[in-house]
Amino acid sequence: MLETTTLQRNHLYEFRGQQLRYSHRSNCGVNAPFIFNDSKGKRKELSQTQVQLEVFELVEFCEN
Fold first, then answer.
1. How would residue 47 be classed by pLDDT, with cut points 50, 70 and 90?
2. What pTM value is reported for the model?
């Protein structure tokens, strides 16, 4: 289970088979306070429960 406090801005995560980049935590979003963006720039708002149960961090590899 992923803790919401470990989310890092601009890191890549997976949600239901879709890769999303964490943007920020919304101050006004009560039901869906976590904001992610997909590869097309579409915004996806997720609840704390969804983040804890269905979001997995993806490790990005880079070549030296």
1. very high
2. 0.81
